[in-house]
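#structure-requests
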Amino acid sequence: MPTLSAAYIYPIKSCAPLASDQAFVEARGLRGDRRWMIVDADGQFITARKHPRLVLIHAVPRDDGLALDAPGMPALRLTPPVHSAQTSVAIWKDQVSARAAEAQADTWISNYLGIPARFVYMADECVRPVDPDYAQAGDQVSFADGFPILLISQAALDELNGRLDAPVPMLRFRPSLVVSNTSAHAEDTWRSIRIGAVRFDVVKPCARCVLTLVDPETGIPDSAGEPLRTLISYRRTDKGVMFGQNLIPRGTGMLRIGDEVSIID
């Protein structure tokens, strides 16, 4: 029986993950996942694709927000802005309402990246719809690239690592959920699943990019272009290099490591 073997949230888009033994599913994805994002002076989103050192920023949830640390930087507390005016920011083709963080947080991230940058927060009233080509009316997502949940089978990574000279960790692919006890890429055949008490629609394969080259421990991209170079050799389609599946939750509830994954369709 397939089982849930890992769960991760990414409190700030493109920054370090947090592993947990349990995670609560909300409409936007896992609770606390990618509600913060970094944007440039024009409000365009910034990611580790162009600024790989972002993966070295660690954010730990506290009662009053997030506690941040990064190499060479003082500690910082990020508090969800309540009274700041909403501002429009861009993530891919979406224009999204968000709230700006305090000025000292902007100074911190600007100093770290060496460019003018800002933190923005997706408050509850800031709603970003999921692509209607794959969603139902009312579906929403956080600052994740496009969908609330990304699921990858452990066997898919094992298959990839069997083709690589040097294996890579699962976190190169920044999943929300990892499932064990399946065949490689079994998730490609699923359309609807249940994990614990929560049902999910499996809506779209995940196209991979240069972010997979970035070592999450060092923030340094792989000079040989791996694992993307190897993935291209056997996972390339006319829509990109696919690895993992995007999910939309059809309910809310707690997921726990060891939960059974039932294939509904």
